[in-house]
């Protein structure tokens, strides 16, 4: 446990000095799950540096300077704190008002810099060196540095490990008693993998600190029934929490030794006897900051802030909320809330109900993250009503700090959780959400309900960037990440009920065993709409079918290798034999790898007759869930089938692309922005040049202003050309032909010119139509590939077929780069007009791999060059022989809001 002197900052948002790169600041999670603040050094940090250096051991100083160096001279301090933030940069890590580590690079030559670190001994082993290296490398890349070098003493094994385990290809040489380390700092698949694995472990630990406390204090506890402080204290006590529980009554100044609801009470948390791991805060909003400082002084590891009065009330509340989070993180604490319902952990030995809900669900295998406090209570009630066991639950309220991303990192390695549920009102960092959820979905089902999809609305308390993408983009991101998207809370629990108890289907063929013709028809209709297939004829039994009748039918379908899933519908006759039917169904399904869903006596849970009891008295795997009607049962089965298909996908990877020159593209963008500091659309020549760095060729188009000029250009090209009007107002006009094809000679061109200038009404001023002459491309199907830099999602790649109908119907696919081979293949195939690419009505199939190759190249370009805010291959003609890019549009502009998911780890 680390303790720090606590001081109250003078203001909420101190102004940085001139020239200070605030974008390099980051809150970070250390290896042990605690938080810290990382930022560039400033001249004002001189005293902080001297105090830090005084705490560093002589051995660590020797490792840094290769000689005894007991103190820093005034000249040293000035040199170390005064940097230009480009060729010389130093980043420091602070906790509270103490500096605990520093890393720096200094340019030594063209695109090369020497890097060095110094970590306070008490904080070595917490991953500071790795974090500093990640952030220094990112800053160096932005400043044109491509390579790091370092000198390390042979016995400084910790520093050697920092370099060798970073995921870069490190070269080492031994010279004059020193190890010379050298490596390129361009991100690689290996370095990304290392970073993401470290990120998952540290963020999971930070959540574990919240969910598994050994002691909890309720700050704002009250004796008055009906108050929030009283409810929180009661729920913790009555939920069976086995650890130490304390009540802190800040209003009435409880005398030490007194009790509230049988719990020891104290006037402040500083006076609590013993350690406190988790503080649940229920005081007035303007008191929360003082409480955070008291918690920091006490060494509290995490906070649940139930108090309201923050971002949901307006500007003053948003300011207060930013201050709360920054203050807590600066002292190593994570925050759930504010305006939160709280958290629950049903694990044996924890039994933690730190929420406003008196309902404590039974122990189970389903975890739940919810952003809405108001919806949290009915959600818990629904879970209890269905008998759906819970592993852990977090309702994050304004979600100022802890988010669904953090919880998914925790549940990835949580053995108690087998199914994850998400109720999302907003996505604070969609790129990280996509990356983290995809990794989790590869291991466990993740079922997600996103509200506000139609309006992109965001609750007032959640400070997120507002996306301008259509709802289809979010749905595509869910599919890309393997999430099971649902539309209602009822569907959320239906799918969870199935996946928590039954195996995943091995295919789409479903058998039906039923004693109701009417309900069988409902099941068949739902199967048809969901894309499931009927395995043979439904086994329709009579209304008074006996248990043995059911047993015979069930034995047949479970023995049939062509059956992948089973739907059982049982409605009771006048003389119900439900118990006997349940025994037969349970016996037939036992040990089968085929999932079974039922409509059993209209139950909406796992009926006791169909339960396989677990060690805690709940429903174990193999229990058969029941749904209110067959539509719900089949709908849940369809979602599980789609997820199973995603899990079974063939190997999907990010392909290696030849003819890629990332450095050339970066240099071009930098040079373009020097010419156009505010950004601009690229002309034809610049578009050709930029795309060439990524192996994309464009068929040249030549502007012409007269018939004579058009004839001359066509002759230069050897005719077999087209004349095209490219002005935006004429493109894709259904009543006008904007392209004249098959121009073989001068007469054809003059006829085309006369007809088109007349059609568009621009005979007197052809420049208004912006005519171009272009060589004929092989006939094919026109498609469009685009990217846009969204302020929330970052780069998004879209695909569709050209035409007005496609635009009006929004028939496009969306993916977030980087694209895997499977992502690109699915993008092409999921648009409704895709049959036109595969030989529709006898036409020749087109070159699908050529489309996928273009998608990968556009994805790579927009991922590498975030200043390319818009890129359209707005006319690509695809034939059996390949793809020809005919027309493009590109815009480059300064990146005012950097992407949120960066190569270096940070809390956002």
UniProtKB/TrEMBL annotation:
The keyword Transcription does not apply. Keywords: Transferase. It comes from the Bacteria. Residues 36-190 form the N-acetyltransferase domain. SUPFAM superfamilies: Acyl-CoA N-acyltransferases (Nat), Glutathione synthetase ATP-binding domain-like, NAD(P)-binding Rossmann-fold domains, Succinyl-CoA synthetase domains. Pfam families: Acetyltransf_3, ATP-grasp_5, CoA_binding_2, Succ_CoA_lig. Coiled coil: none annotated. SMART domains: CoA_binding (SM00881). GO terms for molecular function: acyltransferase activity, transferring groups other than amino-acyl groups; ATP binding. This is GNAT family N-acetyltransferase.
């Amino acid at each position: 446990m680390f303790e720090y002197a606590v001081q109250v900052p003078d203001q909420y948002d101190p102004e940085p000095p001139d020239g200070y790169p605030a974008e390099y600041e980051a809150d970070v999670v250390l290896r042990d799950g605690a938080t810290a603040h990382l930022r560039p050094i400033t001249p004002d940090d001189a005293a902080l540096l001297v105090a830090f250096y005084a705490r560093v051991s002589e051995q660590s100083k020797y490792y840094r300077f290769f000689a005894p160096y007991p103190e820093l001279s005034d000249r040293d301090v000035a040199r170390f704190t005064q940097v230009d933030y480009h060729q010389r940069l130093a980043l420091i890590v602070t906790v509270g008002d103490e500096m605990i580590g520093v890393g720096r690079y200094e340019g030594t030559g063209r695109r090369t810099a020497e890097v060095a670190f110094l970590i306070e001994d008490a904080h070595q082993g917490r991953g500071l060196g790795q974090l500093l290296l990640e952030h220094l490398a990112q800053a160096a890349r932005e400043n044109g540095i491509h390579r790091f070098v370092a000198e390390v003493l042979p016995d400084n094994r910790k520093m050697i490990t920092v370099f060798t385990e970073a995921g870069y290809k490190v070269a080492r040489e031994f010279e004059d008693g020193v190890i010379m380390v050298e490596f390129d700092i361009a991100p690689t698949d290996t370095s990304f993998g290392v970073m993401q694995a470290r990120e998952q472990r540290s963020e999971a630990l930070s959540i574990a600190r919240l969910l598994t406390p050994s002691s909890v204090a309720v700050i704002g506890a009250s004796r008055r029934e009906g108050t929030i402080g009283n409810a929180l204290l009661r729920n913790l006590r009555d939920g069976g929490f086995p650890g130490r529980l304390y009540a802190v009554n800040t209003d009435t100044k409880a005398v030490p030794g007194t009790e509230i609801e049988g719990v020891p009470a104290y006037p402040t948390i500083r006076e609590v006897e013993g350690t406190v791991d988790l503080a649940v805060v229920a005081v007035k909003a303007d008191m929360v900051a003082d409480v955070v400082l008291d918690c920091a002084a006490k060494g509290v590891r995490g906070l649940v802030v139930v108090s309201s009065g923050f971002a949901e009330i307006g500007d003053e509340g948003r300011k207060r909320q930013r201050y709360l989070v920054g203050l807590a993180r600066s002292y190593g604490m994570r925050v759930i809330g504010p305006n939160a319902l709280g958290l629950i952990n049903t694990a044996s030995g924890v039994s933690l109900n730190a929420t406003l809900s008196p309902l404590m669900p039974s122990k189970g295998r389903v975890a739940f993250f919810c952003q809405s406090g108001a919806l949290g209570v009915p959600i818990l009630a629904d879970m209890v009503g269905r008998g759906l066991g819970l592993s852990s639950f977090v309702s994050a309220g304004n979600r100022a700090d802890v988010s669904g991303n953090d919880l998914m990192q925790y549940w990835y390695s949580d053995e108690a959780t087998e199914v994850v549920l998400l109720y999302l009102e907003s996505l604070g960092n969609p790129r990280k959400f996509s990356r983290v959820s995809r990794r989790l979905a590869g291991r466990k089902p993740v079922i997600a309900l996103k509200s506000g999809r139609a309006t992109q609305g965001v609750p007032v308390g959640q400070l997120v960037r507002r996306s301008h993408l259509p709802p289809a983009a979010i749905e595509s991101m869910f599919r890309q990440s393997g999430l099971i998207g649902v539309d209602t809370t009822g569907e959320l629990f239906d799918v969870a009920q199935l996946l928590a108890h039954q195996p995943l289907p091995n295919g789409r063929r479903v058998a039906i065993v039923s004693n109701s013709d009417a309900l069988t028809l409902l099941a068949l209709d739902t199967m048809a709409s969901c894309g499931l297939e009927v395995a043979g004829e439904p086994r329709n039994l009579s209304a008074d079918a006996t248990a043995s009748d059911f047993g015979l039918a069930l034995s047949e379908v479970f023995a049939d290798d062509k059956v992948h899933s089973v739907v059982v519908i049982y409605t009771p006759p006048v003389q119900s034999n439900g118990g006997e039917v349940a025994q037969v169904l349970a016996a037939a399904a036992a040990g089968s790898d085929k999932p079974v869903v039922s409509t059993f006596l209209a139950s909406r849970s796992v009926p006791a007759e169909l339960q396989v009891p677990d060690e805690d008295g709940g429903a174990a795997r193999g229990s058969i869930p029941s749904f209110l009607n067959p539509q719900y049962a089949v709908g849940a089965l369809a979602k599980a089938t789609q997820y199973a298909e995603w899990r079974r996908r063939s190997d999907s990877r990010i392909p290696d692309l030849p003819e890629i020159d990332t450095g050339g593209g970066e240099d071009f963008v930098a040079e373009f922005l020097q010419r156009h500091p505010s950004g601009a659309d690229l002309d034809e020549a610049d578009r050709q040049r930029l795309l060439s760095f990524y192996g994309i060729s464009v068929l040249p188009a030549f502007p012409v202003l007269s018939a004579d000029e058009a004839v001359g250009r066509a002759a230069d090209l050897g005719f077999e050309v087209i004349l095209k009007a490219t002005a935006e107002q004429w493109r894709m006009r259904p009543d006008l032909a904007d392209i004249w094809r098959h121009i073989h000679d001068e007469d054809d061109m003059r006829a085309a010119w006369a007809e088109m200038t007349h059609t568009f009404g621009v005979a007197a001023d052809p420049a208004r139509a912006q005519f171009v002459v272009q060589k004929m491309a092989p006939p094919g199907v026109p498609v469009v590939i685009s990217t846009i830099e969204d302020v929330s999602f970052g780069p998004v790649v879209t695909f569709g077929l050209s035409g007005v109908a496609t635009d009006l119907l929004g028939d496009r696919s969306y993916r977030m780069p980087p694209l895997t081979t499977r992502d690109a293949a699915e993008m092409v195939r999921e648009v409704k007009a895709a049959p036109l690419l595969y030989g529709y009505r006898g036409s020749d199939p087109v070159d699908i791999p050529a489309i996928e190759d273009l998608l990968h190249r556009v994805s790579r370009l927009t991922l590498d060059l975030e200043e390319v805010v818009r890129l359209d291959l707005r006319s690509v003609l695809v034939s059996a022989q390949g793809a020809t890019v005919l027309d493009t549009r590109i815009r480059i502009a300064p990146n005012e809001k950097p992407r949120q998911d960066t190569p270096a780890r940070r809390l956002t």
